[in-house]
Amino acid sequence: MSFRVLDALPALVHRFGETVNKVPDDRNGRLGLENKKVMGFKTGGGKAIGLDVYPANLDCVRLWIEPPAPPPMAGIILLEPKKCADLRRRELSALADAKGIYIEAKSRTAFEALLEWYS
Q1: CA 93, CA 60: separation in Å to the nearest integer?
Q2: Could you tell me the end-to-end alpha-carbon distance of the chain, in angstroms, rounded to an integer?
Q3: Which residue, among 34, 23, 24, 42, has the nearest Cα to 92 in the 3D structure?
Q4: Are strands 38-42 and 101-105 parallel, antiparallel or unpaired?
Q5: How far is CA 46 from CA 39, 51, 79, in A?
Q6: Per-residue pLDDT for the chain (119 aa), expressed as one digit of tens each?
Q7: Which of 49, 61, 65, 116 could in theory staple to 8 by disulfide, Cβ–Cβ 3.0 to 4.6 A?
Q8: What distance separates the 2 farthest-apart alpha carbons in the chain?
Q9: 3-state percent breakdown (helix, strand, coil) of the chain, nearest 5
C-alpha cells in the first residue's frame, strides 16, 4: 500500500495545527478555504512546510521544506525544485520560487523521521 496525501495530512495537522495559508480573499467564493495545490504549516520553531496536494500528486507524499536539505534518510527522496504560485503567500514565502527543498516521503516511517528532524 502506498503512502498518500490523505495519510500524511492528519499527522501534519496533529503535529503543527491548522494550515497557515487558507485562501485570503473571496476568489470564486473560496474565502477561508484550503488552497487547491499546497497546504502549508509552520513548525513550532517557525519554519514553513508545504504539502503538495495538486491532484496529480495525491497518491504520494511530496513536501517543500526550508533549506538545508535533510541528511540521507531511508525513504526520503530529494526531487528537482518545483515552483508553485500558492507558495508565494507570505506564510510560505521561504519555500517560493524554488527556494524550498522539494522531497518525497515513501512511507509513514520515513515521513515521521523527516518531521522529527525538521521540527
Answers
A1: 23
A2: 27
A3: 42
A4: unpaired
A5: 16, 16, 23
A6: 689 999 999 999 999 998 887 656 666 665 555 667 899 999 999 999 999 999 999 999 999 999 999 999 999 999 999 999 889 888 999 999 999 999 999 999 999 999 999 99
A7: 61
A8: 43
A9: 35, 20, 50
Residue 72 is which amino acid? P
Q: What are phi and psi of 13, to 5 degrees?
A: -65, -40
Handedness of CA 113, 43, 81, 71 (dihedral sign): negative
d(CA 82, CA 52): 10
Could you give the C-alpha distances from 21 to 3, 73, 80, 93, 116, in angstroms and in order?
24, 28, 23, 11, 22
Cα 35-104-15 angle, rounded to 5 deg: 60
